[in-house]
Amino acid sequence: MIVKVCGMRDADNIREVEALGVDMMGFIFWPKSSRCVSERPGYLPTQCRRVGVFVDESMERVERIAREYALDYVQLHGRESAEYIRNLKVDCGIIKALNIATTDDLKKAEDYRGLVGALLFDTKGKSVGGNGEKFDWSVLDAYDGETPFLLSGGIGPDDAERVRTFSHPKCIGIDLNSRFETEPGLKNVEVLRNFLKQIYNEQD
Questions:
Q1: Which of 45, 62, 150, 194 has its CA at 20 to 30 Å from residue 53's CA atom?
Q2: Can you tell me whether residue 12 is helix, strand or coil?
Q3: Three-state SS for 75?
Q4: pLDDT at 63 over 70
């Protein structure tokens, strides 16, 4: 199971979370986010994949940041079209986030088939992400697309069992963010460590 921790920006916190062995770390470049990376952190991860999160951003800025931060993935969390993705010139993978509430929302996934490496299914909320709210995962039973996905949307410390028992042939991992924070952009490392132990069923 891929574990992505998103909304990082503090150098020491980045080091501590990376040391837990997570697979991906997300950096938000959307100016309206309380977790926005306004200046380059003093440390960037080298042991896990770097993901830059953008919302309806100009292609030029996405391309520039992808180069400057040596991103492994760009995650598009807005209303970016298939045409936008076809024209985007980045030397890394692409993840497209979709906000999900009903089975009808899953139909949008077909627009991106063959264009992105993975989808991210998030909760449809007031903000485009980081709402800390869950959606009904049973809706995903209706997803029969070819593109693998990450499960997001308000996953918190008390959801380890729910994560472990969730099963879908195209689910490749989970995305963690606001529910593991002491403040926006700062993760509680001990709580995160305990959660990872539970989902991997590790014993002390």
A1: 194
A2: helix
A3: strand
A4: yes
What stretch of H or E contains 49?
A: strand 49-54
CB atoms within 10 A of CB 3: 22
Collapsing DSSP to helix, strand or coil, 192 comes out as helix
Three-state DSSP class for residue 179:
helix
Q: What burial class does residue 146 get, using C-beta atoms within 10 Å of its C-beta: 0-12 exposed, 13-18 middle, 19+ buried?
A: exposed
pTM: 0.94
Return the structure tokens found at 178: 């606001």
Write the single-letter amino acid at 193.
R
Res. 200 pLDDT band, cuts 50 70 90: confident
By the 10 Å C-beta count (0-12 exposed, 13-18 middle, 19+ buried), 132 is classed as: middle
Question: What percent of the chain stands above pLDDT 70?
Answer: 95
Q: Which residues fall within 8 angstroms of residue 144, CB to CB, at 6 or more apart?
A: none
Cα dihedral 10→85→122→44 (10° resolution): -10
Provide the 3-class DSSP secondary structure of residue 159: helix
DSSP code string of 86-119: HH---SSEEEEEEEESSGGGGGGGGGGTTT-SEE
The residues pairing with 74 across neighbouring beta strands, listed in sequence order, are 52, 94
**CA gap 156, 86 in Å, rounded:** 34
Q: Which two tokens stand for residue 95?
A: 């993840």
pLDDT over 90, % of the chain: 91
